[in-house]
Write a structure and sequence with these properties.
The protein is of the alpha/beta class. The protein has two domains: 167 residues, Rossmann fold; 91 residues, Alpha-Beta Plaits. The protein is 43% helix and 13% strand. It is built from ten helices and seven strands. A four-stranded parallel sheet has the order 3-2-1-4, with helices on both faces. It has a three-stranded mixed sheet with strand order 5-6-7, covered by helices on one side. A hairpin with a 2-residue loop joins β5 and β6. The longest helix is centred in the middle third of the chain and has 19 residues. The two termini are 32 Å apart. The mean pLDDT is 94.
Length: 269
């Protein structure tokens, strides 16, 4: 099936739903889905963004900007204290408990706005990794139209570019909690350290990265094509000093480079 047919199938699926609330992060997938939803359903589509401690302020601000450009209703729910114990204790099913809590809130917002269905940006490639959150979506009857229409991440990037979306080449992102090893308790302070470290890497010009938090140690992952940047203009020393300022005692550079889901290696699937 060619991409144009997949796009038409997506539009048809959305039209069939009639009214939808898009769980919206501003990432590649949800931004593409929101654009198609707005074009297809007009005011019968809204965006809902949850802003809690595991979400980067940079990502939230970008989501606000993108939604404004679409001229779509954008509901942002601020959760000051995300005190869900099953999330904070950070077991292997952390994502399941988090998604369950978050999407229940999104469903409440949809109901308040007379919206019948909640959709999310899960794509066909997402079913390959360890993703316990998908079980939560299934239990709550959340619809994943991108996956239903067999759209892969690469498909979405290509179609996003054709639609003129600046997110077509946006690096992959994920909630900040994914940077913490399973079994290590999540705290607001830890997440803030990670966010500050990653913001610094953005300022240095890195595009795809993670700051993994291992207690006193920060383990930096960047794309292998970008690792060489650390070995010029005293970047290693500057980065080490910055991360000490943030609160880490030691900073390491992962020689394997950036790997999506690298924290899942310890999970028995």
């Amino acid at each position: 099936m060619d991409l144009s047919q997949k796009l038409e199938n997506l539009k048809s699926r959305l039209k069939g739903l009639g009214s939808i609330a898009v769980a919206y992060s501003g990432g590649v997938d949800s931004n593409f889905l929101l654009k198609v939803a707005k074009d297809t359903l007009g005011d019968n589509a809204i965006a809902v963004t949850i802003h809690a401690m595991m979400h980067s302020d940079v990502e939230i601000n970008e989501a606000k900007e993108y939604a404004r450009n679409f001229n779509i209703k954008h509901v942002i729910l601020e959760i000051e204290d995300f005190n869900l114990e099953k999330f904070l204790e950070n077991g292997p099913k952390r994502c399941y408990y988090c998604k369950t809590a978050v999407f229940r809130k999104i469903k409440e917002i949809a109901k308040e706005n007379n919206i019948k269905y909640v959709v999310d940006g899960t794509n066909l490639d997402d079913i390959g990794d360890y993703r316990p959150g998908l079980k939560a979506l299934e239990e709550l009857d959340i619809i994943s139209p991108l996956r239903e229409c067999n759209l892969t991440k690469e498909d979405i990037r290509i179609l996003s570019k054709k639609l003129g979306l600046s997110t077509h080449n946006k690096p992959a992102f994920a909630c900040l909690a994914t940077r913490i090893p399973y079994g290590t308790r999540i705290t607001k302070e830890t997440l803030e350290m990670i966010e500050k470290g990653e913001q610094y890497l953005i300022e240095l010009g890195f595009t795809q990265f993670r700051v993994r938090h291992h207690g006193d140690i920060a383990r930096i992952e960047v794309d292998k094509d970008e690792i060489h940047k650390f070995f010029s203009n005293d970047i290693l020393e500057k980065t080490n000093n910055k991360f000490i300022e943030i609160g880490f005692k030691y900073t390491t550079l992962d020689m394997n480079g950036y790997k999506m889901g690298s924290m899942n290696k310890t999970i028995e699937k």
